[in-house]
Amino acid sequence: QAQLAESGGGLVQAGGSLRLSCAASGSISRLSPMGWYRQAPGKQREWVATITYGGTTNYADSVKGRFTISRDNAKRTSYLRMNSLKPEDTAVYYCSSNNYWGQGTQVTVSS
């Protein structure tokens, strides 16, 4: 059974940091890019960052310079390191790969 499982969300003060993890299992291709998305209350889900199997990364302008995506191919896990967090980063963060989605993890940034 294909599954993506996120972890690492929580409550943090503005300016703080968090690291999210996303572990893939089952039939999800280990060669597929892995991406992070987020959805704030009342807003549409938006793309945050993507990393290819080879390590090429891309970021949304809103997080460039503050967030870092990485992956451990042996562990089939993607990470999203989030620094200098702002209240507007508050959202449910989802990982996606090979057309599968995780359940999401809540990130709340207090001002």
Task: Please describe what this structure looks like.
It is a single chain. By secondary structure, this protein is mainly β. It is about 0% helix and about 55% strand. The chain has strands spanning about 5, 10-15, 20-25, 35-40, 45-50, 55-60, 65-70, 75-80, 90-95, 100, 105-110. It is globular.
Topology readout:
Elements: E1 3-7, E2 10-13, E3 18-25, E4 34-39, E5 46-51, E6 57-59, E7 67-72, E8 77-82, E9 91-97, E10 100-101, E11 105-110
Q: How would you characterize the largest beta sheet?
A: 7 strands, mixed
Large-scale geometry: globular
Output the structural class.
Answer: mainly beta
Number of strands: 11
Rg (C-alpha, Å): 13 Å
Low-confidence stretches: none
Pick out its properties.
mainly beta, 7-stranded mixed β-sheet, 111 residues, 53% strand, globular
Summarize the structure.
With 111 residues, this protein is mainly β. 0% of the residues lie in helices and 53% in strands. It has strands spanning 3-7, 10-13, 18-25, 34-39, 46-51, 57-59, 67-72, 77-82, 91-97, 100-101, 105-110.
